[in-house]
Amino acid sequence: MFPALISRQPLNTAKTALRFGELALDYTELSTVAGTLARELRASAPPRVAVWATPTLYTSVAVVGALLAGVPAVPVNPKIGERELAHIVSDSTPSLVLAEPGAVLPSALAALPRKDIELTGTPGELPPEPGPETPALIVYTSGTTGPPKGVVVPRRAIASTLDALEDAWQWTADDVLVHALPLFHVHGLILGILGPLRRGGSVRHLGRFSTEAAAKELASDATMMFGVPTMYHRIAGEVGEDPELAKAFGRARLLVSGSAALPVHDHQRITAATGQQVVERYGMTETLMNTSVRADGERKPGTVGVPLRGVELRLVDEAGDVVEAAETVGEIQVRGPNLFTEYLNRPDATAEVFTGGWFRTGDMAVRDTDGYLRIVGRKATDLIKSGGYKIGAGEIENALLEHPGVAEVAVTAEEDPDLGERIVAWIVPVEAAPDEQELIDHVARLLTPHKRPRVVRFLDALPRNEMGKVLKRALPQPRETS
């Protein structure tokens, strides 16, 4: 999986591979520690292992060891609820749980045999490399439309995505990545830990994000940062007031945002203070990465760039026809070596999301004349049909964020007897709530009148998951706000 490990290149370097606070392993040490775990797993031959995925060095070693052993790993969110955990354990049936020493596990995992991860080991021969279709990870979806589904990610999907990002981001062994992302998901684990290891680079994991901690690493030897919009929103608010912070972030070779859309206003504030233009990319658990703004390409705030090498992408309208015209909304469909194999134990759900070999993402987008993709929302929640128009919620959200009185926003739809659906804006104000009509007129002026909100509601905060995505289904129902 990684050039310095699975390809069996000599490990005679003391280069740091992973660092979490005071704990660190160089490549020789990582090979020894993870290799020891891999040999132990191969000897016991568990069909699957659960990993209690705390943001620690122990989690990284557990996943690398499982990958070396060819044993599928199921990363488990340490903040998961009892019901979801019970479902994941019964669905994936791990025979062993890997955890950091001293971690207190919930009952569903505590009932399984447990192996504590050690940061010591014995040098030895690594297990033989499994085939490219061998399951590497089983990553569970967030379960917004039902019980979480186990996405079976094969080794070739991880390798193809990380190698395509090497091309798009000019990612090399000289890069040092800083991030503070959780390690139970694609962004933090596959991109943020396995990505640098595949390149032979280094990771500096902060444990908990702060603008100051990230800036300290970037002012030292870090060259790249991965983050989610909530992190970049904090950065945008601080770098304009602190020249030293701005200077540190200005030193980065690449700042990458993902997991949700980064508002254009935050792009602009970061660029104004640091000179940096944040790169956005687009992916899913089922597809890993599909598109990205290239390091050597034009940066267009609000877009997620162009398809990665090896990824085929098309937009399809409601009739199933391929959308050819620029700036026309269609559902994103992809195919390529980056795709998952199946939903674990769910052949029905797997069949439902494929059409002629194309994976139907459920995400809606438009493409500009340069081929750059702009996500306008989820088909189920973010495509609004109002007055005969198809409107993407994301476009309205970006417009509202340009208003100085708006800190956060989510746009949804409600049934309307005349329009079919009316646009509803959920606003977290900066201080006092702005005038509703002023916000409505603001959108009508920036976009077009039919895209203006018909209803404005104010909240203290938007419901979000740990990756920073707004949980629109968790917003109050109309009767709760009357």
From TrEMBL:
<dbReference type="InterPro" id="IPR020845">
    <property type="entry name" value="AMP-binding_CS"/>
</dbReference>
<dbReference type="InterPro" id="IPR000873">
    <property type="entry name" value="AMP-dep_synth/lig_dom"/>
</dbReference>
<dbReference type="Pfam" id="PF13193">
    <property type="entry name" value="AMP-binding_C"/>
</dbReference>
<dbReference type="InterPro" id="IPR045851">
    <property type="entry name" value="AMP-bd_C_sf"/>
</dbReference>
<dbReference type="InterPro" id="IPR025110">
    <property type="entry name" value="AMP-bd_C"/>
</dbReference>
<feature type="domain" description="AMP-dependent synthetase/ligase">
    <location>
        <begin position="14"/>
        <end position="344"/>
    </location>
</feature>
<dbReference type="GO" id="GO:0006631">
    <property type="term" value="P:fatty acid metabolic process"/>
</dbReference>
<dbReference type="GO" id="GO:0031956">
    <property type="term" value="F:medium-chain fatty acid-CoA ligase activity"/>
</dbReference>
<protein>
    <submittedName>
        <fullName>Fatty-acyl-CoA synthase</fullName>
    </submittedName>
</protein>
<feature type="domain" description="AMP-binding enzyme C-terminal">
    <location>
        <begin position="395"/>
        <end position="469"/>
    </location>
</feature>
<dbReference type="InterPro" id="IPR042099">
    <property type="entry name" value="ANL_N_sf"/>
</dbReference>
<dbReference type="Pfam" id="PF00501">
    <property type="entry name" value="AMP-binding"/>
</dbReference>
<comment type="similarity">
    <text>Belongs to the ATP-dependent AMP-binding enzyme family.</text>
</comment>
